[in-house]
């Protein structure tokens, strides 16, 4: 097991949002497809923190192609560390193709190449075991407290989806976990798909844990 150098708590930081791209979606093999015209809209830059919240400062972008959810999620994660790379550069580094980014290990390799720290955590059981859920929560708290967002590879079928997702499709996707609340056990998601304009939103921890299997996450 690697050693991790602990950084200062990330409490009370602000989520910074870039102008979004808004589009419709269809499912892809390793990452969802987003189509439509780029449009700019004003998004509040200040996130008021409630009791128990820890939220990281990130530079949010909507994915620039229908299959760049992986590169966009990695870009959001790296921005918390002050590293700013284009989605195109990250797509090349990840080996992303028109079907998406095949495996969470590719995400871990790129993230750790820039900042160290990251490991691949698999969640093959659906539903996840209690041990897998406990590890996921510990990883979220440890990562966010030390200013390392988590990138999760998810599968969102009809009936079990984040807000705004196409309800008649199974979406294979990457998004970034940028905060948590240990009072109500919720997690803050930076979602590069922007389905229905939902870009930064809260999910219950149990909902997140149900979305990751049989994939994994980088933490």
From TrEMBL:
<protein>
    <recommendedName>
        <fullName>Peptidase C39-like domain-containing protein</fullName>
    </recommendedName>
</protein>
<keyword id="KW-0732">Signal</keyword>
<dbReference type="Pfam" id="PF13529">
    <property type="entry name" value="Peptidase_C39_2"/>
</dbReference>
<dbReference type="InterPro" id="IPR039564">
    <property type="entry name" value="Peptidase_C39-like"/>
</dbReference>
<feature type="signal peptide">
    <location>
        <begin position="1"/>
        <end position="29"/>
    </location>
</feature>
<dbReference type="InterPro" id="IPR038765">
    <property type="entry name" value="Papain-like_cys_pep_sf"/>
</dbReference>
<feature type="domain" description="Peptidase C39-like">
    <location>
        <begin position="56"/>
        <end position="193"/>
    </location>
</feature>
């Amino acid at each position: 097991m690697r050693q991790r150098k602990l950084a200062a708590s990330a409490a009370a930081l602000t989520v910074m949002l870039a102008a979004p791209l808004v589009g419709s979606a269809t499912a892809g093999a390793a990452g969802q497809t987003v189509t439509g015209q780029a449009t700019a809209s004003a998004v509040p830059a200040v996130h008021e923190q409630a009791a128990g919240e820890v939220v990281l400062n990130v530079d949010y972008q909507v994915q620039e192609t229908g299959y760049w959810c992986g590169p966009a999620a990695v870009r959001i994660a790296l921005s918390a560390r002050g590293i700013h790379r284009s989605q195109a550069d990250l797509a090349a580094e990840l080996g992303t193709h028109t079907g998406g980014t095949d495996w969470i290990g590719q995400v871990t390799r790129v993230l750790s190449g820039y900042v160290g720290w990251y490991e691949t955590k698999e969640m093959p059981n659906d539903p996840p075991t209690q041990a897998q859920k406990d590890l996921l929560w510990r990883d979220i708290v440890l990562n966010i407290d030390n200013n390392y967002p988590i990138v999760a590879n998810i599968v969102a079928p009809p009936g079990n989806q984040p807000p705004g997702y196409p309800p008649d499709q199974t979406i294979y996707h990457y998004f970034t976990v940028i905060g948590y609340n240990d009072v109500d056990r919720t997690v803050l998601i930076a979602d590069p798909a922007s389905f229905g304009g939902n870009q930064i939103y809260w999910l219950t921890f149990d909902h997140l844990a149900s979305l990751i299997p049989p994939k994994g996450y980088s933490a």
